[in-house]
Amino acid sequence: MTSHSSTAATTDLTDQGVAGGLSGTGSIGTKVIGSAALVTVALGAIYGLVISGPDQKLGNTVRIIYLHVPTVLAAYLAFVITAIGSAMYLLKRTEFWDLLASSAAEIGVLFFAVTIIDGALWGKVTWGVFWRWEPRLTTSAVLLLMYVGYLAIRALPADPRTRATRSAIVGLVAVVNIPIVHKAVDWWRGIHQGQTVLGTVDPNMAGNQLFAMYTSMIAGLLVFAWLLIHRFRVGFLMERTEDLALEEAISARRQENAGQTGQGA
Questions:
Q1: Nearest to 86 by CA among 99, 73, 71, 75
Q2: Angle formed by the axes of helices 62-92 and 207-264, nearest 10°
Q3: N or C: which end of the chain has fewer CB within 10 A?
Q4: How far apart are CA 51 and CA 49, in angstroms?
Q5: pLDDT per residue over 180-219, tens digit each?
Q6: How many CB atoms lie within 10 A of CB 114?
Q7: Alpha-carbon 141 to chain mean position
Q8: Nearest CA to 168 among 77, 92, 76, 107?
Q9: Packed helices 7-15 and 95-126: angle between N→C axes, nearest 10 degrees
Q10: pLDDT value at residue 112
Q11: Which residue ranges make up each domain of the chain?
Q12: What is the pLDDT of residues 134-159, one digit of tens each?
């Protein structure tokens, strides 16, 4: 077991169906979530790209928002889970919380990178450029870099407890940027659209547009949940593989020492 693991953590993981003999990361639960995600993604795409019409003000660029809002919502949720997992790790020092925090951070970076990319596409159509150093975009870039830094810290050579502690501290500091990103337009009067996923969906939306928006948001959360479960289980299996390799190395060393002792006698 790694040095920052505990019997309680192993029990928690086993109770969730992640046993040492697990040959894969799928389960009935992930199949249900995955199927629901596929259905809602398809439904959101059909309504967002085909059935719903262009917006009166935004025109066809409104279709980018059907991707932009779900990805940023999932990213924010991932970063909050990372912060919760980080705080719980510092309190409990168990492998479960460390794995949950790191798994959520990886997926959060993926979703937030997509958010910035589709936001840049919207900016090209709306502003004529892919990027402007206005408050919302600048604070978003800082947020992404902080979580990339979180992942970089986890990649540095260190014992598991030290690595988990360092990344947990970064995970707690980085989450403070989410409300800053959210309020950047109001605080510094940026040119970015004021309403965000943490505010209210545009009240002018109705009918197919509103259905496409909410369906896409649900799809984004389902995809996030599916990815998080699988990434968590992959992380757990990787830890177990490292444990077995360490145990085999120690056993081989002991046998080697016993052989040398026998020859010396």
A1: 99
A2: 40
A3: C
A4: 7
A5: 998 887 777 766 665 544 444 455 667 888 899 999 999 9
A6: 18
A7: 16
A8: 92
A9: 60
A10: 97
A11: 31-48+59-243
A12: 888 999 999 999 999 999 999 998 88
SS (H, E, C) 22-66: CCCCCCHHHHHHHHHHHHHHHHHHHHHHHHCCCECCCECCHHHHH
Distance, CA of 16 to CA of 246 (rounded, Å): 25
Secondary structure (3-state) at 247 = helix
**Residue in the block written with tokens 């439904």:** 43
The label of the residue with tokens 């697990």 reads: 22
The pLDDT tens digits for 73-106 are 999 999 999 999 999 999 999 999 999 999 999 9
80 three-class SS: helix
Q: How far is Cα 265 from Cα 259, in angstroms, rounded to an integer?
A: 10
CA pair distance 25, 231, nearest whole angstrom: 8
| pTM exceeds 0.70 for this model | yes
Which tokens belong to 175? 């989450």
Helix (H) or strand (E) holding 246: helix 207-264
Greater model confidence, 189 or 108: 108
Please give the backbone phi and psi of residue 59, each rounded to the nearest 5 degrees, phi first.
65, -140
Pick the closest to residue 199 from 136, 109, 131, 105 (CA basis). 136
Nearest 5°: the CA angle 83, 222, 34 is 125
Mean pLDDT of the chain: 83
